[in-house]
Amino acid sequence: MRALRITLIIAVILGGLFVGADRVAVSMAESKAADKIKSSQGLTTTPSVSIKGFPFLTQVAGKELDEVDVGVDGLTTDAGGGTTVRVSELNAQLHDVRIGGNFSSATADRASGSAHISYADLSRAAGPGVTVSYDPTGTNQVKITGNLLGFSLSARSSVTIVNGDTIKLHAERIPGGSIPQWEDKVRERTDMERKIDGMPQGMRLETVKTDKDGIDVSVAGNNVALTG
User: Fold this and answer.
1) pTM for this one?
2) How far apart are CA 125 and CA 134, in angstroms?
3) Per-residue pLDDT tens for 131-159?
4) Is-contact 94 64, C-beta < 8 A?
5) What is the pLDDT of residues 169-212, one digit of tens each?
6) Which residue has the higher pLDDT, 24 or 35?
7) How far is Cα 97 from Cα 221, in angstroms, rounded to an integer?
8) Strand, coil or helix: 18
9) CA 199, 204, 208, 214: dihedral to nearest 10 degrees?
10) How far apart are alpha carbons 74 and 89 in whole angstroms?
11) Other CB atoms closer than 10 Å to residue 210's CB: what's the count?
12) Can you tell me the distance from the alpha carbon of 204 to that of 197, in angstroms, rounded to the nearest whole number?
């Protein structure tokens, strides 16, 4: 019995050491993955990375991770034409992540997540003098207000996803005006397409929903490049 107790104690100690080593290893891997994602995606901030599943060392030996969660705050994307769009939150859950080569790259079989863009950031993306705000009267609509050629303007715009990487605002109706080509001039300010660049390669914008805090976008993808 004494020998059995000693064996059990040793097993508990070794198990604790293994767990400790496993947690240290996963913490180091998360830090390195965050740095790699930052550099490969050209981010200005370091993302948060959380590797799920236990034990981590066994997953690494098999070069496949169950799940990796990635979060990026304050992602500023190039929308083209010298404009940018700030995504205040981007969260992604990557499943069945395959580690490639000498651990220099990783690819997820599938991924899902969400992104959030505030109305303040949308207004900045729209340009000077234009404000984008919540419109509670319609589904997936926003209100556009501003001044154009000395006239105050107000229009409701629908919000949609285009080509899996672009958020489009399109005014449903333009208030009348006597200036020639008035509607074209107004739409130059109210209508916009802003590309959301900088997401992990392989992820696409899926659906969009407006609420009082901003625009929430669901994202998804297959064969998503986590690093490399």
Assistant:
1) 0.75
2) 16
3) 889 998 878 899 888 876 677 888 888 99
4) no
5) 888 887 766 666 777 877 777 788 888 776 777 889 999 999 99
6) 35
7) 13
8) helix
9) 0
10) 6
11) 19
12) 10
Residue showing tokens 């993808």: 221
What dihedral do alpha carbons 214, 190, 219, 195 form, nearest 10°? -130
Q: Which residue has the higher pLDDT, 221 or 126?
A: 221
Mean per-residue pLDDT for 35-45?
A: 74
Amino acid at 29: A
Query: What is d(CA 67, CA 93) in angstroms, rounded to the nearest whole number?
Result: 7
Both tokens of residue 150? Answer: 């000395």
What tokens were used for 76? 């500023």
Instruction: Scan for tokens 């080569």, then name that residue.
Output: 101
Is 20 in contact with 54 (CB distance < 8 Å)?
A: no
Which tokens go with 185? Answer: 């001039």
> Token pair for residue 154?
């107000």
- Can you read off the two tokens belonging to residue 9? 């104690």
Number of helices (H), then strands (E), belonging to the chain: the values are 4, 11
